[in-house]
Specification:
The protein has no helices and 5 strands. The protein is an all-beta fold. The chain has a single domain, classed as Nucleic acid-binding proteins (OB fold (Dihydrolipoamide Acetyltransferase, E2P), Beta Barrel). It is globular and about 45 Å long.
């Protein structure tokens, strides 16, 4: 890999379920998975801790997060942007 080329990490879209911590948000990301045996489509969800430097995301907002180097023990994602504000 050259100096100019950078690794591009994953980006995910989810909903903020907690913004109570300082500079940290918890984002719930839902995905659809097909059951191996019964072939039914199911919803599965995962919570990610993301770094929010400016504190711009609030609870209920739809946000875009990007994979990054570990910021702390549980944080390895960074807030990219707020896609849609909560009503």
């Amino acid at each position: 890999m050259t100096d100019t080329a950078k690794k591009v990490g994953k980006t995910l879209e989810g909903v903020v379920v907690s913004d109570k911590m300082d500079k940290t948000i918890v984002v719930l990301v839902e995905r659809r998975v097909r059951h191996a045996k019964y072939e039914k489509t199911m919803k599965r969800s995962t919570k990610f801790h993301a770094h929010d430097e400016k504190g711009e995301a609030k609870m209920g907002d739809k946000v875009l997060i990007k994979e990054s180097r570990p910021v702390s023990k549980t944080k390895a994602w960074v807030l990219v942007s707020v896609v849609e504000q909560a009503k």
